[in-house]
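Example: Max-like protein X.
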Amino acid sequence: TVPLADDEDSDYHQEPYKESYKDQRRRAHTQAEQKRRDAIKKGYDDLQAIVPTCQQQDFSIGSQKLSKAIVLQKTIDYIQFLHKEKKKQEEEVSTLRKDVMALKIMKVNYEQIVKAHQDNPSEGKDQVSDQVKFNVFQGIMDSLFQSFNASISVTSFQELSACVFSWIEEHCKPQTLRDIVIGVLHQLKSQLY
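Written out as structure tokens, the predicted fold is:
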């Protein structure tokens, strides 16, 4: 009878162990599931805190909590808005770079003019009439306007500003301006003499 009692005893000890193992697995699964749900909830709460449109008060729904679908949709809309803003800023940066390039070209030209005037302050003084100066200016402007008119589109302000700086970079290079001025001066010289 003692061995039978031992067998019963061993069965008695094994059964609670099996139940305990099942309970542990169930508890571990429940905890893992709760962690997953908490992580998802925290993710939605973080999105709601980060996305400005989720924080705006919607008086039609009062102070009710936003649904997960609304939080996701508002997040998607906000990301699309940010992409558009980024693209717009990249275009503005590109335009500003063109502005800087044009200003650098103008700066170099003005520095050359100032240096030439400092080197020869009296050269050409009182030797050219205002009419001749105007004719030179008009010749330069007429030549520039031809390329300006052919290159510039005025369908929108944005297109105009982009075209202007593109035109400046292409047609107002120091060498190009120098060639225009020399051409105008040669033309006036042949008219005067």
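The mean pLDDT is 80.
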